[in-house]
Amino acid sequence: MAEHVVVIYPHPDDEAFGASGTITTFRQKGIPVTYLCGTLGEMGRNMGNPTFANRETLPEIRKKELIKACKVMDIQLEMLGYRDKTLEFESREEVANNLYRYLKQMKPSLVITHYPGHAVHPDHDAFGAAAIRAVEMLPEEDRPTVWAQAISNTHVEELGGPDIENDVSDVFAKKLETIMAHKSQADGMLQSVKNEADDVEAATRQWLGVESFYTWNDK
Ligand SMILES: [Zn+2]
């Protein structure tokens, strides 16, 4: 199977904070990466810091930020058009069917998504579960490896340590550039680091310098 990585997260910026270092490493090896982004994050509370978005303009702003972030990472983007903060109420089977159609066509070797039940936000849990369901719908010989990302505070306690820990310090500049592409979200989040740390660069690396995943095993 040709290598192709498909990243499945619900919100613009999930990929930036969670996996952009890993994605960059794949791209440096010439491996194609496609992001299936569920929503435009249009219900987000962050409106820029200082504020430059409002409830009306946020969807279009976040769409532009997402496109820019994908340009920075040099990856393909598919926007799936679900409504933010409602993914948990969509039919799991319908979302899985939709994702399945993409996967059947793209034939990825690796899928990166959230670890259902350990991903903090209901959209993360629901979309991760649908992504894994979609993978399971593929014939066994076509099923990609799945890297599931747990981000809850208690996941190591509950699941044990992750089996994949990518140190992304070599590509950290690219990761920061990807995060900054999501300006409406990044300014606020990085501001909280600035408020608490003397050495912002070091604190940010400490926070985001390792991207970890669990190889999903349904057996
Ligand atoms: Zn998210």
Textual characterization of the structure:
With 219 residues, the protein is α/β, with parallel strands linked by helices. 46% of the residues lie in helices and 16% in strands. It is built from eight helices and seven strands. The protein has helices at 14-28, 58-73, 92-106, 122-137, 155-159, 172-181, 183-196, 200-208; strands at 5-9, 33-37, 76-79, 110-114, 145-149, 164-167, 210-215. Strand 4, helix 4 (122-137) and strand 5 form a beta-alpha-beta unit. The chain starts with a strand and ends with a strand. It binds zinc ion.
**What's the oligomerization state?**
single chain
Helical fraction:
40-55%
Report the uncertain regions. Answer: none
Whole-angstrom Rg = 17 Å
| Pattern of helices and strands | EHEHEHEHEHEHHHE
Widest sheet: strand order? 3-2-1-4-5-7-6
Main sheet properties: 7 strands, mixed
Total helix count? 8
Q: Give the strand content.
A: 15-25%
- Average pLDDT metric: 94
- Helix/sheet category: alpha/beta
Shape type: globular
> Which ligands, by name, code or SMILES, are bound?
zinc ion
> How many strands appear in the DSSP assignment?
7
Rounded to the nearest angstrom, the distance between the terminal CA atoms is 22 Å
